[in-house]
Amino acid sequence: MAVCQSYRNLNRDEIFEVLDSAEYCRLGTAQEDQPYVVPMYYRWRFDENGRAWFRLFSEPCGRKMDEMEANSLVALEMELPVDGAIRTVVVQGRVYRFVPPCGPDLRSIEVYAAEISGREITSVLNEGSDLS
């Protein structure tokens, strides 16, 4: 069985719907040409200049924290299933700062969004096709 997919770009309101509704995001970091992706809870907002910011919550130490301190460029991905499709939003950004602990053993991470894009992806399974 092969999977074919089609997509369309999301408009601004659809992107905001995904950002408001997704339960978590996936944070992508990279160090020494090796990507690393982990799920994280987040909140997002616009600042007074209309720039999008994301706040992530994390343990104060570990691989992702080490990687973000070495390379502040990150990606975030959020998704929302809708009517037989998936709406996905990808954020390219930079870690701006680590905020002091926000609770027992948690730290808050501020990410400035340099670029935000979204797509709705619909897949179709073709019977009898071989994936190998």
From TrEMBL:
Pfam families: Pyridox_ox_2. Gene3D superfamilies: Electron Transport, Fmn-binding Protein, Chain A. This is Pyridoxamine 5'-phosphate oxidase family protein.
